[in-house]
Amino acid sequence: MQETDIGTIPGWQPLMLSLDLPSATVSGAQIGEQKLAVWRDSKGQVHVSDDRCPHRGMRLSLGFVREDMLACLYHGWRFDEGGHCRVIPAHPDIRPASTICVPVFPAREHAGLIWTRVDGADTGDPPETEWNLPETEHVTPVRTIMINVPLATVMTQLGGASGTCVRISAAARKGPPLSLLIVARPAGHARTQLHLLLEGKAPQTLCKQAAFWAMDFRDATEREYAGDGSDA
């Protein structure tokens, strides 16, 4: 899988934890060169589009959700789930042309994560099949963490392969071993986005220990990578 921020990264990619995107909010993300606006409507449905308003190029991820449409911060143009412009506040009586739209991408939620793909390929297998993920009810999302190390190095440390979920049993700072599920993807040049989950319905005490593990893993991996003098 590609390690830099150049080009298009294939397949389903995890963007963020579902719990980090409340209803009627929008957030930004990026896969390869593709910048994304990720938003959730009032019904809880997630949508993903290009992060550029066709009017003046403003980042849509800086905007807001109004009447279950994504609204640009600059002039308030609103786009529906299909990317079509439905409202131009400066001209409320004019129906926007069908050519005014933003590209949209498939969006799924599974295992407490929001997924999309920007490679333009047929969606084929869902993310849970592609990444070998368990059923949603069998996991507890913990946190997302950024590691300033290439994905290949992170996966070597974890003993897994890029593009698939890694299952490990890890020692906690205190308490029983942690049954971790790790989903990681490249997040730019020599940078990895790591999503941490726990198998089963885990109490808050275990989630806290898993979060400590993630920070310890990040710090140790970054130190080792810097000590090697490796160049991504």
Automatic annotation (TrEMBL):
Which Pfam families does this entry report, sorted A to Z?
A: Rieske (PF00355)
Q: Which InterPro entries match?
A: ARHD_Rieske_2Fe_2S, Cholesterol_7-desaturase, Rieske_2Fe-2S, Rieske_2Fe-2S_sf
| Rieske domain boundaries | 12-116
Keyword set for this entry? 2Fe-2S, Iron, Iron-sulfur, Metal-binding, Oxidoreductase
Superkingdom classification of source: Bacteria
What PROSITE patterns does the annotation carry?
RIESKE, RING_HYDROXYL_ALPHA
Which PANTHER family does this chain map to?
A: 3-KETOSTEROID-9-ALPHA-MONOOXYGENASE, OXYGENASE COMPONENT, IRON-SULFUR DOMAIN CONTAINING PROTEIN
Q: Per its record, how is this protein called by name?
A: Rieske 2Fe-2S domain-containing protein
